[in-house]
Amino acid sequence: MHFMETQNCIFCKIVSGEIPSDKVYEDAEILCFRDLEPQAPTHVLIVPKIHIASLDEVEESKEHKELLGHLMAKVSVIAAQLGLSNGYRLVNNCGEDGMQSVKHLHFHLLGGRAMGWPPG
Ligand code: DGP
């Protein structure tokens, strides 16, 4: 990880509090906040607090496996907190073809309406 990468990263600034966000859930490892451009009645982003550029940068290290396991285990907790009792969609956009725009690993949690498939 390069210093400049975290310094210029919007989501690192949200994690540090430098940029305000509408927080939904927070613990020592992860932060969940409402997306600025919601694509569903409920649309939040779940991010690791440490800077990982994308899912493609996730390694098979103990640290990454524990972090991602923790994040995944919290999805149902956050969904319940948001009242998504009828289901939801969890999305990760990775890299150029995945149309990832913010280069800090994040998962979109969308709900409150039926989703379409296939995705565009
Ligand atoms: P992606 O395209 O998967 O990289 O999604 C990035 C999402 O981040 C997009 O839905 C809009 C959201 N976003 C970008 N900048 C900000 C911000 O400053 N605050 C919040 N809350 N969301 C942001």
Question: What does the model show?
Answer:
By secondary structure, this protein is α+β, with helices and mostly antiparallel strands. The chain has a single domain, classed as HIT family, subunit A (2-Layer Sandwich). The longest helix is centred in the middle third of the chain and has 20 residues. The structure holds 2'-deoxyguanosine-5'-monophosphate (DGP).
Task: Provide the fold topology.
Elements (H helix, E strand, L loop, with lengths): L2 H5 L2 H7 L6 E4 L3 E5 L7 E7 L13 H20 L7 E3 L15 E5 L9
Antiparallel strand pairs: 1-2, 2-3, 3-5, 4-5
The chain binds 2'-deoxyguanosine-5'-monophosphate.
Question: Quick summary of this structure?
Answer:
With 120 residues, the protein is of the alpha+beta class. It contains 3 helices and 5 strands.
End-to-end gap: 31 Å
Give helix and strand order, one letter per element, not per position.
Answer: HHEEEHEE
For the record, the CATH architecture stands as 2-Layer Sandwich
Classify the beta-strand content into a percent band: 15-25%
Indicate the CATH class.
Alpha Beta
Portion in helices: 25-40%
Q: What fold name stands as the CATH topology? A: HIT family, subunit A
Keywords:
120 residues, single chain, HIT family, subunit A, alpha+beta, globular, 27% helix, 5-stranded antiparallel sheet, binds 2'-deoxyguanosine-5'-monophosphate
